[in-house]
Amino acid sequence: EMSASLVGSEMCIRDSDKGFTLKVILKTLTRIGYSCNIPKDIIENGSTRKIQELAKEMVLKSTDFGVPQNRQRIYIILWKDGELDKFEYPSACDKSVCVGDILETSPDPDLTISDRLWAGHQRRKVENKKNGKGFGFGLVSSESSYTNTISARYYKDGSEILIDQGHDNPRKISLREAARLQGFPDDFEPSKSKMQAYKQFGNSVTVSVIEAISRKLISYF
Predict the structure, then answer these.
(1) DSSP per residue over the chain, as a string?
(2) 159-197: per-residue pLDDT in tens?
(3) For residue 14, is pLDDT > 70?
(4) Confidence class of residue 10 from pLDDT cuts 50, 70 and 90?
(5) CA pair distance 107, 91, nearest whole angstrom
(6) CA-to-CA distance for 126 and 115, rounded, in angstroms?
(7) Pairing between strand 72-80 and 34-35?
(8) Cα 11 vs. chain centroid, distance in angstroms?
(9) Sign of the CA dihedral with 208 first, then 214, 215, and 216 last
(10) Residue 8's beta-bridge partner residues?
(11) 113 touches 171 (CB < 8 A)
């Protein structure tokens, strides 16, 4: 009976430190008797660029699995040496989604950001663009194909995902919308603390991606 292990990273480690972090992680795991889709000789002796290139097939996008969020993460499937030649990663589903699919029909008015916060977001975006940083708020509407990646710091100011409300200031997404953005069902109950709940969803892996990987894993048993 094959024993497989799933390692999901919530960091974009494929590009971190020009691939050095990924190489160290893979070396550590394969030296204790595990294999993955990247050959061991390349992990041990190949360049970080080559490892990054081969690791592309391990990177899955939430937008490909029915969730309107631009979230790309690396998922490393490992198995004990000799038990498998290669793992076939799941293909994108054919479900078309947009931001409107996760929005509540009657959002809490308290989610609308203040004039001061909205002005601060706009000012920082202009300053960051001027300084070449490229960071700023992410404004989307119900018709948008996807949002930016939700992070654990979302509870602070909601800058990465703001919903356009026309003439009114934009609003943050609600906890239920944050849950949907990560593929959680509507009967899932988050932490009673709003701050911890937003952190919970920002730190989570996308449920629908994990489900697709798990179904593939089960087919090997």
Answers:
(1) ---EEEEE-SS-TTTGGGGHHHHHHHHHHHTTTEE-SS-HHHHHHS-HHHHHHHHGGGEEEGGGGT--B--EEEEEEEEETTS-S---PPPPP-----GGGG--SS--GGGBPPHHHHHHHHHHHHHHHHTT------EE-TT-S-B----TTHHHH-TT-EEEETTEEEEPPPHHHHHHHTT--TT----SSHHHHHHHHHHSPPHHHHHHHHHHHHTT-
(2) 999 999 999 999 999 999 999 999 999 999 999 999 999
(3) no
(4) very low
(5) 34
(6) 17
(7) antiparallel
(8) 8
(9) positive
(10) 75
(11) yes
Which residues are paired to 168 by β-bridges? 165
Rounded to whole angstroms, the Cα distance separating 188 from 201 reads 11
Closest CA to 40 of 53, 56, 23: 23
- Residue 65: which residues within 8 A CB-CB, separation 6 or more? 90, 92, 93, 95, 183, 206, 208, 209, 211, 212
Torsion angle, CA of 70/19/46/213, rounded to 10 degrees? Answer: -30
Round to whole Å and give the CA distance between 95 and 84: 31
Neighbouring CB atoms inside 10 A of 82's CB total 8
Q: Which amino acid is at 165?
A: Q
Distance CA 134, CA 60 (A): 24
Tokens 């239920």 locate to 176
